[in-house]
């Protein structure tokens, strides 16, 4: 495989200008009320917080300190990073089964590799969660059966990462404490974590959920994570632009840290199936990785060019029916990577 050449200074400026224009258009077209994003590489580091948190009482200017519900970015920032650390340290193996760590599963034979690649065959989600309590959700997760032969079909599933979060808890004692002590704090991500304690106005609101009292702010938007007390392997983390830029710079290789040893990146490079590697999506067959969160968050990075792009919005505010930003985000990612993806969104 031939490594992608690094962006020239002019190429980097052209890419960031395109992203800037798309961000401005997203605001003027009311695709989102506000947007926080950073674009960086070896010779630049630009960050922006534009627009507002929302409307009416939520019409608060965005700042760099604004805290976002990461939704499924939890899977890669927290859960996948800790799993890769454990794999690199040989405290966990890709061939280990979920049944070795989590009791009562209907499919204990599923491997860590199958779960991380979203090739477990488990359903994409749990039906009817809004009518469940925590115990009922736990039963539904444990009783889930593959509807494809494991290892044959790639289907993104929250169930995979709920189970993987429980694997981490079985090894380390606590998912939240493990992600904090092994990933977030060592990287200097001091404004990130589960169930953050901060002034409510710092949290960017998500969706209007009448059954939860209206606009959700400072609590996990994802209902499964909410039922689980805000802590799960698939969702629940909160963070801000500065912290996620720190994280993504480390993932690009611009920042060297023992938190992410070389073995971590070899694991990512060695897996390429169904448009995915371990935890992350692939934009191409090179070292171009990305992931999104339902609330409107995304991270993308190119290890060959050592460039990164963090984009945070609350695109579900005040309702998920406004899907306009999804097309804008795709355009931003295409501009960042400099090519169309080899896989469908």
Pattern of helices and strands = HEEEHHHHHEEEHEHHEEEEH
| Category by helix and strand content | alpha+beta
Terminal Cα span? 24 Å
State the helical fraction: 25-40%
DSSP strand content = 5-15%
CATH class: Alpha Beta
In the CATH hierarchy, the third-tier topology is known as Beta-lactamase
What would CATH call the architecture?
3-Layer(aba) Sandwich
CATH homologous superfamily, by name? Answer: DD-peptidase/beta-lactamase superfamily
Mean pLDDT: 96
The protein's oligomeric status is single chain
General form: globular
Beta strand count:
11
Evaluate the radius of gyration.
19 Å
Number of helices: 10
Adjacency order of strands in the biggest sheet: 2-1-11-10-9-8
Largest sheet: 6 strands, antiparallel
Residue stretches low in confidence (pLDDT < 50, at least 5 long) are none
Number of domains: 1
Search tags:
single chain; 11 strands; 34% helix; three-stranded antiparallel beta sheet; 345 residues; 14% strand; alpha+beta
What's this entry about, in short?
The chain is of the alpha+beta class and 345 residues long. The chain has helices at residues 9-28, 73-88, 112-116, 134-143, 158-172, 175-187, 223-227, 241-252, 262-270, 324-337, and strands at 34-41, 44-51, 68-69, 193-194, 208-209, 214-215, 237-239, 281-282, 288-293, 297-302, 307-312.
Produce the secondary structure layout:
Layout: H1 9-28, E1 34-41, E2 44-51, E3 68-69, H2 73-88, H3 112-116, H4 134-143, H5 158-172, H6 175-187, E4 193-194, E5 208-209, E6 214-215, H7 223-227, E7 237-239, H8 241-252, H9 262-270, E8 281-282, E9 288-293, E10 297-302, E11 307-312, H10 324-337
Antiparallel strand pairs: 1-2, 1-11, 3-7, 4-7, 5-6, 8-9, 9-10, 10-11
